[in-house]
Amino acid sequence: MPYKTTKLKNGGYRVTNVTSGRIISKKTTKIKAKKQISLLNSLDKLKQHAKSHSKKHMTAMRADIKKGISFSKAHMNATKKHGK
Questions:
Q1: What is the pLDDT of residues 51-62, one digit of tens each?
Q2: Predicted TM-score (pTM) of this structure
């Protein structure tokens, strides 16, 4: 799902979901808003990825991503350990 930031009159930023119009955060800094959008996009990417992979594969990927490993490297590691 696409997300966007909007600058508010009071100087803060709002993060919203473009398709549903749902407000994710109401008043935050620009840097935090960008990080939040990055996190939300990666969570959406993981949800889509989970449709075609096993539970063990996804558990291994989430563990690697929490350690700070990128999505693609976590995918390669999970594929080597648990297959598809």
A1: 999 999 999 998
A2: 0.72
